[in-house]
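User: Second chain of the day. Same drill as before.
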Amino acid sequence: MPSKRLLKWRATVTYLILLLFLSLILTLAIGPVYISPTEILEVFCWKIGILNSPPRKVYVNIILQLRLPRILFGFIIGASLSVSGMVMQALFRNPMASPYVIGVSSGSALGAAIAMNMLPSIIGIYTTPAVAFLTGLFTLILVYNLARVEGRLRTDTLLLAGIAVSYFFSAIISILVWIMAQERHQIVLWLMGGLWGADWIKIDVITPITFIGLAVTYMFAKDLNAMLLGEETAQSLGTNVELTKKTLLVTSALMISASVSFSGMIGFVGLVVPHVMRLLVGPDHRILIPSSALAGGIFLAWSDALARVLMEIPVGVVTAISGVPFFIYLLKRRRSVRSL
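Assistant: Same format as last time:
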């Protein structure tokens, strides 16, 4: 790798990490009770033993028990959704592919809704993510097979199949909402997507899933680069195309289902962030994967901060408001390119 490109990549990741820590401090300050960055740093210094005198107890509880788990949860969920969307865009070679558009989010949401309201907690807190993973994986396989025509994957058919399956599962979820009268309000809020249920237990569950998924995805970075040239070219370059596709699709389904089962349906993160980072850092997945993960976490953390300011509205509403115009922009751009 040329040294100039390596230095540029290191600088990009360094800037994103610094922006991540800056976002952590600033979003911790935002809320019904404003806490200055100085007081936030005092709480952290006291927690790790640098300061002997404890800060005000009310600030300690607000930061460590309420805001910090929620913000870290947003970082993790955002990274999962962003990298999953990037993987689908690469595998399907379509910038409009994302967990939300392809229907995986709806499939995972259906499984999570069934697990939360109709199934016993067989394996405790892991029950909902496990069921969401199975239904999300089933949705991905279903859409993938519907989009294959004569053994080849057609991206236009893929989008249509994903939208159709997504609407079908959304209809089933609506039936569940209608039947479950007592839990109706809770299900509706969960479907809108939010981080208000974040706690340290959920972070302990989803963190290893996310980091394992990111590590596995990065292991296939060079294979994803080769597949940008087409499956036949990638095969001639030594890439096991089928193994790459199956491994990454299962990995993406695992990260999506874990995210959806805990935070609900947060759309457009996997569509907007990977595309923006691809424009900024280029198509090489060796830098695109870590930059998309960091940018996705930053984007969702700030979206949640805005949601908290706007009377605690669901963060999925904020991401949709920002994502829909971008989706329309992609449609117009693809139309203009085809007309040339």
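The chain has a mean pLDDT of 85.

User: Great, on to the next one.
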